[in-house]
Every structure is written in C-alpha cells, then in structure tokens.
Q: What sequence folds into this?
C-alpha cells in the first residue's frame, strides 16, 4: 500500500496510540476534580501543554486545546469578531482558504461583517501590497493560511508580517493545519502573529484534538461556554488521552525535522519531474521554493480527477482529488478557481500529499504506475 | 559568532560610595552561584565591570542565567582578539555582517586602557569605520542613536569587541539589602512582592500559613513551587510553613464575625514577627496593595499592624491589580498563582468583613483567645524546607509522564 493522502489525514503512530490507551486506562480522572485522580490528570494535562509550548517556542499559557482545525479556525475568526466588534467590522482573508475559514467568514457576513477576499497569483499566493491596500480603520482581523491544502502554496508570511507590524492592533490568524513539521516554523511563529491553529490528526495524533496558539494578552471571546476549562476560554472536560497523544505526536514529528522535510521534498520533486514530461499534464505546484515540500497538485487533461484517484486505487496507491472536504461534492477546487485555472482542467486535478514516512521507492512505484495509466487514459481521449 | 566572554556592567551600585566593595563582592558571588553548573567558567568582579570568561561554555545559556541576576544593568557578549590591527578589522567586519539589516546605521565606540597600543581611540574609530563601510555595503554611519554600536575595548590582555547590549534585571545584588521574612500566600500578589524584595537586594525567608484539612496539600505544594520559581533569583530560599488551623478554629469560635479576618491577620503578623526575630531578620514583606480587599484598607492595616513595631514593607502598595498581573506574567508566577486551590485566606472569610475595623475593638476581641498559648503551639509546629531553583512540588509524576509524552 502506498498512502499519498496525508493532507486528508495521517495514520496515528503506534507509540501515539499507546499513549492514548495508557492515559485512558491510568489517568482517567477529571482534571478539574480536587482529589488525587483529578490532580494527576491535571498535572498530565499541563505537562502536555508545556511540552507543546516548548516545541513551538511559546509560553505555557499561550497553548489552548481545541477539537481540531475546524474549531480552531472558527474560534480565531468568530472569537475575534465578537471580542473586537466595537472597534470595527472588517475582516480580511484570502480566496484560497480552507472552508473552515471561508465559511466562518461567510457566516459573519450574514451577521453584518464586511469581508475582503485577497486575490492570488498563478501560484496561489496573495501579495503583501494587496493586503496593505485592503486594510481600513475598521479592520479587526486578517486570516491567512500558512500552506494551502490543495496545491501546497506557502503564503508570503514574512511579507505579511512586515505589513502587520504597522497595524499592531489588528488580530492576525494563521491557519497552519498543513504547515506543521514542514520546516516553516520560523515563518509561522513570527514575532507578529496572534493566533495559529493546528489539527492533531494531520500529524499522526488521533482525531478530535487540536490546539491553538494565542499570543499572550490578545483577547478572544469563547465559543464554548461552560465549566471554564482552558483558562475560561474553551469549556468542556479536557480530552486528556488525545491531548497527551498529540503532545507525543508533535515531539516525534519535530524530531529531526530538517532531514524529514528534505526527504519529502526530494520525493515530491521526483514525481513532479517525472509527470511533467507528459504533454497532457499541467503542474499546479511547481518546482519553486514557494511550495511546501509535501504537496503536489497536477492535472491530466481530459481525465476527471475521480477517475485518476480510482485508477491509482486499483494499484493500491491512495491519492486524492484536490481536497478531502470537497472531493465528494463534485465541485472543482476553489484554490484552482482562484488561480484562474480553466474549469475544464481544474476538474482533472489530483493531489499527492506526503508524510515523513513515505519513501523514494514509493515514488518510483508511483511513477511506474503513472506511465501505465497515462497510456491507458491516452487511448480514451 | 563564538564569544569569548560576557562583559557585565553594574547597575546602581556604581554610585554607592563606601558600600561599593561589598556590592561587587556579593554580585560576584551571586553570579558564580547562578553559573555554577557551567564548567570551566571564570568570573572576575572588578571595580568597574564584571567579566565572565566563557572558555567554551554556551554563551546563550550563560546569558539566560545572567538575565535573572539582580544588580546587573546590562551585559555584552564579546569576542577577544589579539592586538593585531588586521585581526581586529576582520572580526569587526564579521560581527557587523552578522547583525546587518538593510538600511542599518552604526558607529564605533573605542575605549583604550592600554595607552601603549599603536593607535589611539580616534584612529581606531577611523580605521575600523572605513574598513566596515568598505566591506558591508548599504551601511551608514550615524553618531546619535545608531542601530548598532560596535564597542571596541583595548585592554592589557587583548582587544574586546562587542555589538550587542542586553538589558539586565536591574536592582541590587541579593544579600546586600539584609534579610527579611516574606508572607507568602500563594495568590498573585505575594510572589510579585517577593520579586520586588529580592530585586532590592533583600534576602527573604518565606512564611506560609497552612490549615489542613481546610486547605489542601496542593495549596502547600503550590506555595513551595512558587518559591522554587522565585529561588531562581537568589539561588535558594528557606520555606517556613506554620500550622494555622487551630488558631482559625479558635478565632471562629470566640470572635464576633465582623472581626474574624482582622484578628486572624493580627495573629498571622504576630507569628511572622516572632519568626523574623528568631531568624534575625529585620523586616516583614507582604503583598498588600492599598484598597484591594477588606484587609487592605488603611484602617485595616492600622488595626493589624498594631501587633508589631517591626517594619512592614509593602512593595505593591500603590500598584493596580492589572499592573501586578503583568509583572506576575513576566516573572512566570501567574500561571501557578491562579491554580484553583483553597488557601488559608479564602477559608474562614466572613461574608461581610469589616473594611473599617476599629483598633480598640480589634484589641478587645483578640483578648478573647489565648494568644500566647496558641502562638507557642504554632511556632513549635513549624517545618522548614530549603527550596532550590527548579525543585518540583506540584507534579510528582513528572518523570512518569515524560515517558508517556
């Protein structure tokens, strides 16, 4: 089996599942209980938080647990909108965000907020000048992703940070769900960003857990009201087994990160340089430094993305159409649309997404199967 | 850049005439203590500067520790070069290149101790300035407030170059301000007050009242953990826990409700003063801030302060709660302080304590209990723990958990 769909989800690591099981069995107390079972659970919760804070270079109080990327994005956006409503009603984001961001923005639009979507260039990236031009006195939030989930474009975070430094009061959120463990920590955890959201299952932790970095001193309104967990910002009994498992998964992910990134980049390029030789192939995530090391998006003209996915599946190779969220809805990619890619070719796009366990041998096998399938497809058209 | 030494500049102590020698000696000791885990380091405290010769130790780690030592105004990591003009030029260019950002301004500031050296300070500034301008395009000279000031010191044993000046913790070396006891509750305020006491050079012993089963083991562990954090500023702190439950129970039984709090506080202060005297301390610090709660009005302070003539020092007296929280966050005690364990101040608190207690009545109601007997019993029951920086009291399973994570 060759699994090349790691941007949809990753396989939970065995060591991580082991931690999940042990914590479920041994530290099942409620971290809010006063007795020793609660105290132990509380200590494990805070030690997990500390480990994550240390790994990403944040303070203990700046790490807040969520149920995943979708909740984190909803929270950063709606929580800011609610907390800063009196200062303005203008929100800025990009045309290529994940639906968790896009649809949160659309919901707020219904509530009377004004949303500006920044356009992208042929590589799916926004420009810092456009951002600067879009900012108004009423702007309260800028939300930009780190790595695009469909084509792997890395947004110009350094340049965005430079603009945001001139507007210290505007909240800046980065959706870094696809960006963790990909050698981008310096860009993501810059000195200006206020909120960064992550999802555990994208880095071998279980489902239903994620975390948010919140810069100390920044205000956000809770979306979950209740018992006051997570420093009164996110109520609900803490999912301790998943939190401990995520802390472990993150440690494993970031161990020797540079070498892992280099390996993924080499695999991506081996496939890219192979498939680009075929006349019907269009590459969307080109061989440029502005693309993340683990995502490759391309199209074979005249063949629907679903057909390509299923054809590879017959060879026990798992890839995806442009994103798992939209792949069952028969809509073409919103990112490719924003890049002004023709609808005809956009419906033929597929995505390969790697993790640190993929190998060069798998890339070679993929290329072999690709040759076979390409010939087969060519006969059809 | 591989640094050879850290040059430390003294804070206020440079101005203190006859005490200066003691200050420098104490600071030297404190720096040595803070850096004791590094091997091969040399610390030399001289009359104008303190020099930490690294001998290969990790400069970032050393500087991190220096940031927590009071009495240091600022410090600069520096590189030692031979007294050879070409070697000096080369290192100067390399240092500027490393710090360079487009549009940056700089200046050279040379000090010369070795008057025999071939070039005077004017010539040095000139030579190095022009060499750097030639080799680092895009850089301009600016004498007032440059982005980068390259300091060059020609000493007898070599030439020292430094580009960066890092802010120290300020204050006075711990130990130069005598000894006091600190009333540590475990809330937000008292750790901040402890920090300020230490920053003025005062060595403190912690006094903590605990009342099992009305307060939990965790509340005690939390106070100890807070002490461990603060111990980072002084190398080690004695933690004195005083059993207080029996006194509270007796007061609750005998004293009218409106004066429960005032009389409890009087007893706490009596005990603290007694402990201070036993330990030859010269004052009592606490975390009171005027008007914050019922016990911290001027009338309350008068009614409580009545029991001792020892100076009571209140570093937070005029600070707002928001300011105190900011400092607590900066010194890394806030997260601990807000852990929700009952401490001795939140139990036995009457629903409506007198905010303006009368001194007369406070004295009278205190007379309803056997002050001397209760105090003797409490003082016989004290436990003293020596707490070191980094000691762990709250999370006893840290190692087990580390395996899981």
A:
């Amino acid at each position: 089996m060759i699994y090349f769909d790691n941007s949809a989800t990753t396989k939970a690591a065995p060591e991580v599942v082991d931690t999940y099981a042990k914590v479920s069995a041994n530290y099942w107390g409620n971290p809010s209980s006063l007795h020793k079972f609660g105290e132990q659970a509380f200590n494990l919760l805070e030690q997990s938080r500390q480990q994550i804070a240390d790994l990403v270079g944040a303070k203990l109080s700046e790490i807040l647990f969520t149920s995943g990327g979708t909740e984190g994005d909803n929270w950063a956006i709606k929580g800011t909108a609610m907390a800063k409503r009196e200062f303005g009603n203008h929100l800025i984001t990009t045309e290529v965000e994940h639906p968790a961001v896009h649809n949160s923005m659309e919901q707020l639009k219904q509530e009377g907020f004004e949303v500006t979507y920044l356009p992208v260039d042929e590589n799916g990236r926004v420009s810092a000048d456009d951002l600067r031009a879009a900012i108004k006195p009423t702007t309260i939030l800028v939300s930009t992703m780190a790595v695009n989930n469909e084509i792997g474009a890395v947004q110009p975070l350094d340049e965005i940070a430079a603009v945001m430094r001139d507007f210290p009061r505007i909240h800046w959120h980065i959706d870094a769900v696809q960006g963790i463990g990909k050698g981008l920590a310096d860009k993501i955890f810059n000195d200006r960003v206020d909120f960064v959201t992550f999802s555990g299952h994208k880095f071998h932790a279980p489902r239903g857990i994620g975390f948010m970095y919140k810069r100390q001193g920044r205000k956000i309104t809770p979306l979950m009201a209740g018992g006051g967990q997570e420093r009164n910002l996110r109520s609900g009994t803490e999912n301790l087994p998943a939190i401990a498992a995520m802390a472990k998964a993150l440690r494993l992910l970031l161990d020797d990160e540079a070498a892992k990134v280099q390996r993924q980049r080499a695999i991506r390029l081996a496939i890219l340089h192979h498939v680009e030789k075929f006349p019907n192939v269009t590459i969307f995530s080109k061989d440029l430094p502005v693309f993340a090391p683990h995502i490759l998006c391309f199209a074979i003209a005249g063949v629907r993305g679903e057909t390509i996915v299923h054809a590879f599946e017959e060879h026990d190779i798992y890839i995806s159409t442009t994103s798992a969220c939209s792949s069952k809805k028969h809509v073409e990619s919103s990112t490719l649309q924003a890049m002004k890619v023709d609808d005809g070719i956009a419906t033929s796009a597929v995505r390969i997404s790697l993790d640190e366990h993929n190998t060069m041998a798998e890339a070679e096998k993929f290329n072999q199967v690709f040759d076979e399938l390409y010939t087969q497809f060519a006969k059809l058209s | 850049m591989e640094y050879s030494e850290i040059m430390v500049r003294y804070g206020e102590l440079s101005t203190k005439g006859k005490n200066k020698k003691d200050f420098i000696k104490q600071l030297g000791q404190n720096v040595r203590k803070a850096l004791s885990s590094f091997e091969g380091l040399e610390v030399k405290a001289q009359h104008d500067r303190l020099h930490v010769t690294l001998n290969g130790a990790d400069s970032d780690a050393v500087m991190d520790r220096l940031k927590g030592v009071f009495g240091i105004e600022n410090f600069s990591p520096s590189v030692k070069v031979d007294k050879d003009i070409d070697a000096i030029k080369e290192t100067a260019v390399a240092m500027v290149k490393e710090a360079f950002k487009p549009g940056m301004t700089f200046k050279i500031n040379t000090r010369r101790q070795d008057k025999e050296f071939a070039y005077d300070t004017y010539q040095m500034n000139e030579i190095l300035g022009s060499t750097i301008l030639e080799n680092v395009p895009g850089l301009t000279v600016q004498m007032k407030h440059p982005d980068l000031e390259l300091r060059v010191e020609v000493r007898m044993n070599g030439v020292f170059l430094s580009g960066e000046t890092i802010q120290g913790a300020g204050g006075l070396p711990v130990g130069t301000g005598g000894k006091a006891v600190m009333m540590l509750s475990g809330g937000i305020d008292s750790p901040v007050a402890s920090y300020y006491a230490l920053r003025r050079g005062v060595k403190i012993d912690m006094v903590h009242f605990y009342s099992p089963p009305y307060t939990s083991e965790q509340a005690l562990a939390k106070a100890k953990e807070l002490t461990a954090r603060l111990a980072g500023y002084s190398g080690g702190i004695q933690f004195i826990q005083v059993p207080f439950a029996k006194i509270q129970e007796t007061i609750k039984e005998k004293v009218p409700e409106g004066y429960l709090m005032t009389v409890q506080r009087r007893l706490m202060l009596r005990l603290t003063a007694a402990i201070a005297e036993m330990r030859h301390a010269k004052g009592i610090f606490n975390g009171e801030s005027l008007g914050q709660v019922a016990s911290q009005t001027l009338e309350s302070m008068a009614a409580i302060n009545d029991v001792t003539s020892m100076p009571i020092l209140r570093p937070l007296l005029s600070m707002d709660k928001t300011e105190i929280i900011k400092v607590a966050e900066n010194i890394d005690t806030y997260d601990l302080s807000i852990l929700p364990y009952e401490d001795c101040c939140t139990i036995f608190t009457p629903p409506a304590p007198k905010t303006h207690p009368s001194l007369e009545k406070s004295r009278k109601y205190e007379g309803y209990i056997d002050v001397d007997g209760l105090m003797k019993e409490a003082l016989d029951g004290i436990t003293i723990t020596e707490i070191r920086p980094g000691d762990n009291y709250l999370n006893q399973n840290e190692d087990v958990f580390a395996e899981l994570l």
